[in-house]
């Protein structure tokens, strides 16, 4: 679904949603101009992005804030329930597992995997950590569709392949390496060092 | 510097760099077509992005791989030396502190800060962790220009303000909240939950 929106616009929808949720409760209407100013963006761009959702703004009044939040939440599947799993329970995997913000987007991180026996068979942040050999049983049992890779670069592709074989359709990859995936599987890459380098070259 | 490149192009430069570095040593020339195919991108876009660097491709031969890597490294300031600091030594802060990939981009994560006395006064991954009250002395002493915020949302703006007052010019924010910064300070936001939500809505 939602295939018609450019990824660059899609990426901004959570930013709008967070901003709208941060507004005082008694703020009933919000204009695209207000949103644009608060987020340091152009007003035309804001209107264009929001037009991908079902929200309808009214001239000289703006959007009904509650309606706009609902429209964004619908678009981002916040009211659904999708399961995610994590591979790699080093410091980063633990951070992701302990992070509480996923439920706002209708996502439950339900299990984690590692190949180190010292890290498996326990719970971290209340979530079970399994040996990677149990991936097929657990991922299929959950019907999990999302995975977060927090493994070293050398393992990223093989873990991705394993997960894809178990039905994972979306992969968030923190390993500093590109992942190949077949059509129908979406991969997003977060390279922390590259992000800092991008900042550095903007100074 | 490098103000003329669109951020969207700049974001792809580390991807090209990583790909080029992953090629076999005896691969001397690379064409934009090869890069485009390997990364699943359009060839025109690759050529346009690379044109922002000093690299010059030759018709029917492509780019000299070594020259192209150097041009990308120059553009991304990989051969410089910039210092970064981290705020918040929870699981995520530890993961960032322990990550070795920054040096590839000429960045040294040199110190970390927390406000929890149980976490400060020690070294993590060989880097000193100071009380946040020492930020001014340490950040100015290092001449650090980059900061990574791994603090809870409620602290992010005040820590950002503190760092900016100490001379920080680029902030990578992992806290799930928008940071306001004055002109001349660049902020990039990595919202892990939002990234997973974006993936989820693309399925």
Helix content range of chain A: 25-40%
Going across the biggest sheet of chain A, name each strand in turn: 5-6-4-3-7-8-9
Q: Which assembly state applies to the chains in this document? A: homodimer
Question: What is the terminal-to-terminal distance of chain A?
Answer: 38 Å
Per DSSP E runs of 2 or more residues, the count of β-strands of chain A stands at 9
The number of helical segments of chain A is 9
- Specify Rg of chain A, calculated over alpha carbons: 19 Å
Largest interface: A-B, 62 and 62 residues
| C-alpha geometry of chain A | elongated
Characterize the largest beta sheet of chain A: strand count, sense, and whether it forms a barrel. Answer: 7 strands, mixed
- What ranges of chain A have pLDDT less than 50 throughout 5 or more consecutive residues? none
Order of helices and strands of chain A: HHEHHEHEHEEEHEHEEH
Could you explain the architecture of this structure?
The structure is a homodimer of 203-residue chains. Chain A has 203 residues and is an alpha/beta fold. Helix content of chain A is 40%, strand content 19%. The first copy, chain A, has nine helices and nine strands. Chain A has helices spanning 7-10, 13-22, 32-39, 43-50, 65-75, 91-98, 135-142, 153-165, 192-202; strands spanning 29-30, 63-64, 82-87, 107-114, 122-124, 127-131, 146-149, 170-173, 186-189. The first copy, chain A, has a seven-stranded mixed beta sheet with strand order 5-6-4-3-7-8-9. A two-stranded antiparallel sheet of chain A has the order 1-2. In chain A, strand 3, helix 6 (91-98) and strand 4 (107-114) form a beta-alpha-beta unit. The longest helix of chain A has 13 residues, at 153-165. The first copy, chain A, starts with 6 loop residues before the first helix and ends with a helix. The model of chain A has no long low-confidence stretch (mean pLDDT 90). Chains A and B meet through helix 1, helix 2, helix 6, strand 8 and strand 9 of A and helix 1, helix 2, helix 6, strand 8 and strand 9 of B.
